[in-house]
Amino acid sequence: MIIRRWQESDRPFLRTLYLRARKSAWRWLDSSDWRLEDFDTATLGETVWVAEEDGHRMGFASVSVNDNFLHNLFIDPDFQGKGVGSALLKHAQSTFTHTGALKCLLLNKDALTFYQHHGWKVEAQGVSPQGDYLLMHYVLK
């Protein structure tokens, strides 16, 4: 598996992956208004990394570099549980210059468990249009 910077040619696939992965992970939300173009808005101005193996794009992470903020980490449901998320997370963390941050929806129990397993700590709780979330931090070692 390689982790590489995204290219414009990745956009159609990543749009599809983003829509499919959100529908799979956030089953409690109404997805009827979600569109492929949501990927463009969600990653605007961010550095996007793609996990790929044998020509298959398996997931992506996007980071707001100036804020050390992991904004998106989505894995194709067909590749979940195979280390793709861990590899992308490790790569994203390697780009942080100080404490990293992310927000994780409270109802996304699998993601919360995943981040805590990788050393992320809950710092605060908040409310978003998608529901309650936890603000999590990762302290560089």
What are the SSEs and their pairings?
Blueprint: E1 2-5, H1 11-25, H2 38-42, E2 47-53, E3 56-64, E4 69-75, H3 84-94, E5 100-105, H4 109-117, E6 121-128, E7 131-138
Antiparallel strand pairs: 1-2, 2-3, 3-4, 5-7, 6-7
Structural overview:
With 141 residues, this protein is of the alpha+beta class. The protein has a single domain (2-138), classed as Aminopeptidase (3-Layer(aba) Sandwich). 28% of the residues lie in helices and 35% in strands. The chain is built from four helices and seven strands; from the N terminus they run βααβββαβαββ. Strands 1-2-3-4 form a four-stranded antiparallel β-sheet, with helices on both faces. It has a three-stranded antiparallel β-sheet with strand order 5-7-6, with helices on one face. The radius of gyration is 14 Å and the shape is globular.
Keywords:
Bact_Acetyltransf; four-stranded antiparallel beta sheet; three-stranded antiparallel beta sheet; alpha+beta; Acyl_CoA_acyltransferase; GNAT_dom; transferase; 141 residues; 35% strand; Aminopeptidase
